[in-house]
Each structure stands twice: as C-alpha cells, then as structure tokens.
Amino acid sequence: MSPFRVVFGKACHLSVEIEHRSYWVVKSCNLTLEQAGIERKLQLQELDEIRLQAYENSRLYKEKVRRFHDTHILRKEFSIGQKVLLFNSRLKLIAVEIQDEATGRTFKVNGH
Fold first, then answer.
1. Are the C-beta atoms of residues 93 and 110 closer than 8 Å to each other?
2. Which of 9, 22, 84, 98 is 20 to 30 A off residue 111, Cα-Cα?
3. How far is CA 80 from CA 77, 83, 85, in A?
4. Which tens digits make up the pLDDT trace of 24-64?
5. Rg of the chain (C-alpha set)
C-alpha cells in the first residue's frame, strides 16, 4: 500500500506509470514504436484518400443532377404581341403608406 493511498484513501496514478503502461501495451501487441508510427501514417493517408473519393463522388453527383435538370427545362418560344407574365422577384422591404378607403385614414406598412 502506498503512502498516498494511506493518507488520501485512493490510488495515485503518476504520468510515468501511465506512459509505462502504454509502452507495455505497445510491446505486448508485438509492435515497435516506429512500426506504430508508420501504421498511423498509413491510416491518415487512407482517411485522406477516402475524403478525396467522397468529394469526387459528390462532384459527379452534382453534375449528373444538373444535367438531368437542364434537360427537363422547357424552352418556350414567344411571338410578337403575345402576352407573358413577368415575375419580379426583387424583395421589397420599403415602408409604404396605405389609405383606408372607408375611413380615409393613412397608415404605414413596413413591407414584410
């Protein structure tokens, strides 16, 4: 029993002990530290390759969907004198004064 446990009633784990245990685990798995470093680099390279492959797949999917969408857009031909509906999509957030026809009072609307 350690003096720390006698005084405080619980075990004390020093960083040296933890480092020694981690080194012991690496040794028990029959790996050297250099080989573990090489394995780690290989895993990081594999992750990078998977990320690049996912990015490429996403790009190909977007191109495919864009081509599908573009082929299904209908081209319309208009003739002179034909009436068409113009959609003005500009967002208007300007305050406007409106007059009530029944009472004649005016009030401001903020455009929302």
1. yes
2. 84
3. 10, 9, 14
4. 776 676 667 777 788 889 999 999 999 999 999 999 999 99
5. 36
